[in-house]
Amino acid sequence: MMVQYPELQATEDGSLTLYTPCFGEHYHSTHGAVQESRHIYTGLALEGRLATWHQDKGKALRLFEVGLGTGLNALLTALIANKEQIPIHYTSIEKYPLPKEIFHHLSYEDVIGKGSDELLRRLHESPWGEDVCITPFFTLHKVLGDLTDYTFPQALDVVYYDAFSPEAQPELWEERLFLSLYDAMNCQATLATYCAKGVVRRALQHAGFSVERLPGPPGKREVLRAVKVRG
């Protein structure tokens, strides 16, 4: 059987995304991959949490991502960690890792800046299943596995929920996963997702989160941000 690799495609802000024939979806918004990631994940999730996060000496902010994908969210987060000198421990689970034939062609330097492509390759080439110090302020732990039978790491401060849509992967949007995730998160921890569907919002609320609908990036009317307001 011929393997159907994801296909590289340009988005409107000049950055690349991938289209997967397997699920019939893009990894990012075609209106702009980088601007989507900056708006939803490093913006609403990470920067939203940093506004209330008080760093203890020697303690890293613990971040969990559903879907490593192209590595764009991890890349942008690593750049913020370095710039702000905030230690971040970043765990990401991925069931369908990209082969070298794909990630070696990913490039974001024209949009993000010089040096970002080298950092992105280091993220992809780092070994699975162990903590890897990518930079002095960014430690990556990649998990090769299925979210539906995964035990979440504890004491999470930020969650990027970036799975394919509920239509493509309904099993990744079930309330039981949000319940488990809620239990794994610190008080005031923040989760953001591009998916603003009512069924997802209600599942997050039923799990205990305080959920708000916020304006999305270009091409997306609304996104969701959820906060664990009680310990």
TrEMBL record:
Keyword tags: Methyltransferase, Transferase
Alphabetical list of Pfam families matching this protein: Methyltransf_30 (PF05430)
Domain spans labelled MnmC-like methyltransferase: 152-228
Single GO BP term: methylation
InterPro entries per UniProt: MnmC-like_methylTransf (IPR008471), SAM-dependent_MTases_sf (IPR029063), tRNA_MNMC2 (IPR047785)
GO-annotated molecular function: oxidoreductase activity, acting on the CH-NH group of donors; tRNA (5-methylaminomethyl-2-thiouridylate)(34)-methyltransferase activity
Protein name: S-adenosyl-L-methionine-dependent methyltransferase
